[in-house]
């Protein structure tokens, strides 16, 4: 594996592991369920980095229309399968989080869970947060999460880049890129983006931020 | 994809509106087709009901 993976490499990784990966991601995360269940009903909900759409499924009860966006086609095929099996409505779309194909101020509720940490540069991670800010309505809110240094498997205080192997059923391993955030760094990146940060917290080894779209007057 | 998605999807590059060119439809779903940016003319495929709105340099096929 090259030292500097590109976003294209990330897409290719998930195209390879997508089907197996999605079958191991059955349940929505409690912090995400709480966030969605407490949200006001909205027109459009967005699950950014939707994977198998397990969080889009929760959101289907809170939004008239839910859009699930992912970089990988094989992951989206798994999401379509889950949509069919579980019988919920989600519109699926293949796209890059740093170049969202959505209208400005069109999304009332969004989740961006366990995905931003796969973007291989800080510039790309910030660009994706700016894109999230752009598409949120003025009163729109989002929950963002990333893997945290506080997780049991890590032994470091400061954020770092790493790869974590994914083992396919045949025993073949595929390296996945992660930037593991320390909580202060995660909060700082959210603050540096065009998002308004309502609060940040840590839960089960993940950093979370509750954020809102760009407030009037905040520089663009 | 449902045609109503056209209300909110845009060209990922310049965020301008897209024009839908359906090739195969069933009920209210577009199964195969193209989305064409009304500003820059970039074309994005819809395959088996899922639009591919990756920027051109992120796609598998090299730009024509």
TrEMBL record, chain A:
Residues 46-143 form the Methyltransferase type domain. Keywords: Methyltransferase, Transferase. One of its GO terms (biological process) is tRNA modification. InterPro entries: AlkB_tRNA_MeTrf/Diox, Methyltransf_11, SAM-dependent_MTases_sf. One of its GO terms (molecular function) is S-adenosylmethionine-dependent methyltransferase activity. Coiled coil: none annotated. It holds the Pfam family Methyltransf_11. This is Methyltransferase type 11. It comes from Halococcus hamelinensis 100A6.
From TrEMBL, chain B:
InterPro entries: Trm112-like (IPR005651). Coiled coil: none annotated. Gene3D superfamilies: 2.20.25.10. Pfam families: Trm112p. Transmembrane segments: none annotated. This is Trm112p-like protein. It comes from Halococcus hamelinensis 100A6. The lineage of its organism: Archaea, Methanobacteriati, Methanobacteriota, Stenosarchaea group, Halobacteria.
């Amino acid at each position: 594996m090259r030292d500097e993976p590109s976003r294209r490499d990330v897409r290719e990784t998930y195209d390879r592991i997508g089907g197996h990966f999605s079958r191991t991601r059955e349940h929505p995360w409690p912090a995400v369920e709480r966030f969605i269940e407490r949200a006001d009903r909205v027109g459009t909900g967005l699950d950014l980095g939707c994977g198998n759409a397990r969080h889009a499924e929760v959101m289907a009860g809170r939004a008239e229309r839910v859009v699930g966006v992912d970089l990988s086609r094989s992951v989206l095929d798994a999401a379509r399968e889950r949509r069919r099996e579980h019988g919920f409505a989600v519109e699926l779309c293949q796209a890059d989080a740093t170049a969202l194909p959505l209208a400005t101020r069109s999304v009332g509720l969004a989740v961006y869970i366990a995905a931003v940490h796969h973007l291989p540069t800080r510039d790309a991670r910030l660009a994706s947060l700016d894109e999230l800010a752009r598409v949120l309505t003025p009163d729109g809110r989002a929950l963002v999460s990333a893997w945290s240094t506080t997780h049991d498997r890590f032994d470091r205080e400061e954020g770092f880049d790493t790869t974590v192997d994914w083992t396919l059923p045949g025993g073949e391993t595929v390296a996945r890129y992660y930037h593991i955030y320390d909580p202060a760094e995660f909060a700082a990146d959210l603050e540096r983006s065009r998002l308004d940060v309502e609060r940040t917290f840590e839960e089960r080894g993940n950093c979370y931020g509750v954020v809102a779209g760009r407030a009037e007057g905040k520089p663009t | 994809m449902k045609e109503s998605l056209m209300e909110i999807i845009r060209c990922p590059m310049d965020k301008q509106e897209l024009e839908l060119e359906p090739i195969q439809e069933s009920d209210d779903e577009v199964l195969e087709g193209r989305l064409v940016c009304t500003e820059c003319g970039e074309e994005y495929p819809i395959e088996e009901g899922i639009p591919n709105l990756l920027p051109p340099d992120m796609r598998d096929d090299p730009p024509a």
